[in-house]
Amino acid sequence: MRVGVCKEIKNHEYRVGLTPAGAAALVRAGHQVSVETTAGNGVGFSDAMYLAAGAQIAANAGEIFAGAEMVVKVKEPQAEELLQLRPGQILFTYLHLAPDPEQTKGLLNSDCVAIAYETVTDDHGGLPLLKPMSEVAGRMSIQAGAQALEKSHGGLGVLLSGVPGVPPARVLVLGGGVVGINAARIALGFGAQVTIMDISLPRLTQIDNDFGPRLLTEVSNRENIATHLPQVDLIIGGVLIPGAAAPKLVTREMLSLMRAGSVIVDVAIDQGGCLETSHATTHQDPTYVVDGVVHYCVANMPGGVARTSTLALTNATLPFVLQIANKGYRQALTDNPHLANGLNVHRGAITYAAVARDLGYKYEPLV
User: Fold this and answer.
1) Is 122 a catalytic residue?
2) For 158-161, which contacts have Cβ atoms below 8 Å and span 24 or more sequence positions?
3) Is 168 found in the same domain as 135?
4) Among 299, 326, 351, where does a domain finish?
5) Is residue 61 part of a domain?
């Protein structure tokens, strides 16, 4: 199979969809790999390294989209990339379609086969291709929140750890999944007072068993969240419904309960955000203020630590890339139902139920 890797063009996105080691693995398996020139420069992978791995170097993205049977990316295709997708071409990347009707329309119009990292599953009910970036984003959310709390960035001027004689910051983590646990772990490491909320009592029990009394647990509902808002310094939004739009846990009205200068980091922004006042921002302009509350809603947070993120992501994606390349997408999806769960768009049809429901399309599973 002809596999193509283009340079990411989203704002301040430096990750790359395939490392030189991944390219070498594909070449050894008998496939042809083309990489857009300088695609890996942002994470320390030069064109020479890809050439040494057996890949070819393409002069521009147009060559990649024109020649590849499968395009392997990191972020969702941008407007100019959507126009270059070909009928039947396989796109393997993060998509996050539920809050993005324009991208969805573009993928449908392209007649491509779009497989989303974030809905591929595993035997344990997990999301193995979303997990590494959720780990990164969860950990990053605390350092982003700590900086936003500084007075010069519009925050309260609060140090997460406090100092002797001054109490630590109060951190509220919404969601006990991968993002939430990693955020809580780092916040505890900073010395903050941390409460984590989830709707699942078994999950809260597991968290309590893992962390003990250092990490406070509470059932997530609107009333309990509202009780925390007047005192909390930093909220981390880490809720996830696979493939679907994130639930709005904090309304605009509830925001008025928070103190001016408090901070919200909405890691759920890729799926539309878990606050009514959230909208996507970029690393270039990461925050905005609503009712005095600082919102950090960068939609590609792991791109800020692009080398770590690229290595973590490609460790997880490469086995699936090889399955698709070795077997073709239809056989690969037939043989691996977990990979089949990643299929979101197929030749002009929506093939993922949550996306179809949220965007008002007919759900048409692959047959």
Assistant:
1) no
2) 158/233, 160/187, 160/190, 160/191, 160/192, 160/233, 160/234, 161/190, 161/191, 161/192
3) yes
4) 299
5) yes
Angle between helix 131-148 and 306-327 (nearest 10): 160
Same domain membership, residue 182 and residue 79: no
- 3-state class (DSSP) for residue 99: coil
* pLDDT score of 243: 86
Which residue segment(s) compose the domain that 266 sits in?
Answer: 131-299
pLDDT tens across 215-225, in order?
999 999 999 99
**In the 8-state DSSP scheme, what is residue 140?**
H
Is 346 annotated as catalytic?
A: no
Write the DSSP assignment of 57-87 as a string of letters: EESSHHHHHHH-SEEE-SSPPPHHHHTT--T
From the list 31, 96, 295, 346, the catalytic residue is: 96
Q: Which of 266, 270, 295, 346 is catalytic?
A: 270
Q: Distance (Å, rounded) from C-alpha 50 to C-alpha 73?
A: 16
Tell me the whole-structure pTM to 2 decimals.
0.91
Q: Is the model's pLDDT at 209 over the cut of 90?
A: yes
Phi, psi of 141 (to 5 degrees): -60, -30
